[in-house]
Amino acid sequence: MVQREIVMSTQTLLTSLFQYKAWADEGLLAGLADLARQGPPDEYRMALRVFNHACIVDRIFVANVQRMTHAYTATGAQEPPLLQALAESVKETDRWYIDYVARLNPQELEESIEFTFTDGAPGRMSREEMLAHVATHAGYHRGEVGRILTRLTGSSPPDTFTGYLHQAEPARRARSSA
Fold first, then answer.
1. What is the pLDDT of residues 83-123, one digit of tens each?
2. Beta bridge partners of 114
3. Measured between alpha carbons, how far apart are the two ends of the chain, in Å?
């Protein structure tokens, strides 16, 4: 049996990860809409706060990867936005990352960028490290919100990379003829 070597570039992987993130965020937003109708207000508010934190960090790194400053002084807010406003921000930010990653070349991905954390401390990461941070940080907090949803409603939206890939590209489920 001949095995093909599959080479995946950082850009290809990041593109897939941000498409997955957008898919998972859509599912989580639908789950939050259901929770708004049936869940305890305090738990719903906590779920919104957690998801809003993830969105704020996404927005902060939109600025960081572009070597721009941002107006955020914290990575969270005491009062979360209404779900509709949060959903619009999440979707807009997800589209931005998908488009942004598609435009980058390998040298830009590897470029090291200095920035300032919201606490005023300096930071330095490569652009690809920042993008990986955004993707993994968001997944962590989607899991946190998913746990709240599961506890209160008995389920949460699917949120696995393989689940996304199989839904986006059903042919991946088929066996290749070798």
1. 999 999 999 999 999 999 999 999 999 999 999 999 999 99
2. 124
3. 7
Looking up residue 94, the CATH number of its domain turns out to be 1.20.120
- Structural domain contains residue 178: no
pLDDT at residue 8 in the model: 64
Give the residue numbers spanning the domain of 153.
15-163
Inside any domain, residue 172: no
The Cα 86–Cα 83 span in angstroms is: 5
The residue behind tokens 């960028």 is 113
Asked whether residue 170 is assigned to any structural domain, the reply reads no
Task: Decide: 128 and 100 in contact? Cβ < 8 Å.
Answer: no
In a domain, 125, yes or no: yes
Counting every residue written for the chain, the total comes to 178
The CA distance from 75 to 77, in Å, is 7
As a whole number, mean pLDDT of residues 59-80 equals: 97
pTM: 0.92
The per-residue DSSP string of 123-139 comes to: EEEEHHHHHHHHHHHHH
Q: Are 94 and 21 contacting, i.e. CB atoms less than 8 angstroms apart?
A: yes
